[in-house]
Amino acid sequence: FIFTQDGYIDFMEYVAALSLVLRGKMEQKLRWYFKLYDVDGNGCIDRHELLNIIKAIRAINGGDHETSAEEFTNRVFDKIDVNGDGELSLDEFVEGARKDEEFMEVMMKSLDLSHIVAMI
């Protein structure tokens, strides 16, 4: 999918994204999540970007967590930042999510639309 970089989402972009989230293959979803979470568009997700993502996901989903968002972010980087540069490349993000069940679960929860689909 090609999305414009104008800071807005038009209807066709929304439909394409919804289709991907609902029916896309896991790797396609992870690649899309990566682009979504790479806030500054530099091709990497740094600790600050991931921390903000984790905080937002927790705020939306609620619940009690054994670790703080900061501790979780640090654990993710320790496990999946293979080259240790403090940033997650697309490959590190995709491979890390595949190998780390907890990280994958958090990423999948971030755009879980099942409750919306149930209402439709």
TrEMBL record:
SUPFAM superfamilies membership: EF-hand
Pfam families: EF-hand_7 (PF13499)
Domain of life, source organism: Eukaryota
GN (gene name): Guca1a_1
Keyword flag Metal-binding: yes
Domain EF-hand per the UniProt entry, residue ranges: 25-60, 68-103
Source organism of the structure: Podargus strigoides (Tawny frogmouth)
GO molecular function terms attached to this record: calcium ion binding
Keyword check for RNA-binding: no
Protein name: GUC1A protein
Keywords assigned: Calcium, Metal-binding, Repeat
